[in-house]
Amino acid sequence: MVKTNTNKDLLKEKGFLSQRQDDFFSMRLHAAGGNLTSDYLRAVADAADRYGKGYVHVTSRQGIEIPFVHLDDTEAARNEMDSKDIGPGASGKKIRAVVACQGDRVCKRGLIDCQGICEEIDNLYFAEPVPYKFKIAVTGCPASCLKVQENDFGIMGFSESVFVEENCVMCRACEKVCGVSAITIENGSLYLDMHKCVSCGSCIRACRKDAMQNQEQGYTIFVGGKVGKRPRMGDMLLRTSDRSVIFDVLEKSINYYRENAQEGERLGDVIDRVGLDAFRETIKYP
């Protein structure tokens, strides 16, 4: 029987989260980026049948939990998952599993290798200790299916277009595909409004005459986002075409958070308290 907070804390470290039913736990499993192999799924299904009630819960962060694992079965369930190389999920004051879309490996709109970035970040930082919690998301384009602006650290692909007038035949393909009305054609002239443009690259893909060309492609980094009782949209920190910059800025952001966060603060709370300019100065990127 679980009677002390100490026992529950130890179980939580192994991925077991207390349910409202006495002595039952949801077993949280490590999964990154929503990519689950068939072997992983078979192992989870077997464990759900053996230790739970024959079903799993897919969390809002692409994770897997097996509810209704009884206290008496927690050790056996954890050992079985370990034997299948499936570790416990993270909770509490830790860096959580990275969420990511399929990016340019699968999605026709994907501009970056979201799964590759996700795997590398997960290998470096998953379950590392932080002052409260730290969530990371990677999305392939400005459609932001993974809601990177709602995470402590978000990475979004971008593709900035440039109009090459001599190639244009005024077919209007780019105008039709632009979802933010950044492109208009009037009186035989095309206007590209970069204040409206979100750098999704749709016009480049639509153009068959190479009149819309890729001027720069890379990564937009957002910091300080969160949801919950006091939601906050992340601030756009920078754009870069250099993949290594992502990891440099992420490392600096995590270290800054560890050094400056007060009790119960997320990264966005720290930024609000010290100011985005002060944070940016510390990170050392314009």
UniProtKB/TrEMBL annotation:
<feature type="domain" description="4Fe-4S ferredoxin-type">
    <location>
        <begin position="159"/>
        <end position="187"/>
    </location>
</feature>
<dbReference type="InterPro" id="IPR006067">
    <property type="entry name" value="NO2/SO3_Rdtase_4Fe4S_dom"/>
</dbReference>
<dbReference type="InterPro" id="IPR036136">
    <property type="entry name" value="Nit/Sulf_reduc_fer-like_dom_sf"/>
</dbReference>
<dbReference type="GO" id="GO:0046872">
    <property type="term" value="F:metal ion binding"/>
</dbReference>
<dbReference type="Pfam" id="PF03460">
    <property type="entry name" value="NIR_SIR_ferr"/>
</dbReference>
<dbReference type="GO" id="GO:0020037">
    <property type="term" value="F:heme binding"/>
</dbReference>
<protein>
    <submittedName>
        <fullName>Dissimilatory sulfite reductase (Desulfoviridin), alpha and beta subunits</fullName>
    </submittedName>
</protein>
<comment type="similarity">
    <text>Belongs to the nitrite and sulfite reductase 4Fe-4S domain family.</text>
</comment>
<keyword id="KW-0004">4Fe-4S</keyword>
<dbReference type="InterPro" id="IPR005117">
    <property type="entry name" value="NiRdtase/SiRdtase_haem-b_fer"/>
</dbReference>
<dbReference type="Pfam" id="PF00037">
    <property type="entry name" value="Fer4"/>
</dbReference>
<dbReference type="InterPro" id="IPR045169">
    <property type="entry name" value="NO2/SO3_Rdtase_4Fe4S_prot"/>
</dbReference>
<dbReference type="InterPro" id="IPR017896">
    <property type="entry name" value="4Fe4S_Fe-S-bd"/>
</dbReference>
<dbReference type="InterPro" id="IPR006066">
    <property type="entry name" value="NO2/SO3_Rdtase_FeS/sirohaem_BS"/>
</dbReference>
<keyword id="KW-0560">Oxidoreductase</keyword>
<feature type="domain" description="4Fe-4S ferredoxin-type">
    <location>
        <begin position="188"/>
        <end position="217"/>
    </location>
</feature>
<dbReference type="GO" id="GO:0051539">
    <property type="term" value="F:4 iron, 4 sulfur cluster binding"/>
</dbReference>
<dbReference type="GO" id="GO:0016491">
    <property type="term" value="F:oxidoreductase activity"/>
</dbReference>
<dbReference type="InterPro" id="IPR045854">
    <property type="entry name" value="NO2/SO3_Rdtase_4Fe4S_sf"/>
</dbReference>
<dbReference type="Pfam" id="PF01077">
    <property type="entry name" value="NIR_SIR"/>
</dbReference>
<keyword id="KW-0408">Iron</keyword>
<dbReference type="InterPro" id="IPR017900">
    <property type="entry name" value="4Fe4S_Fe_S_CS"/>
</dbReference>
<keyword id="KW-0411">Iron-sulfur</keyword>
<keyword id="KW-0349">Heme</keyword>
<keyword id="KW-0479">Metal-binding</keyword>
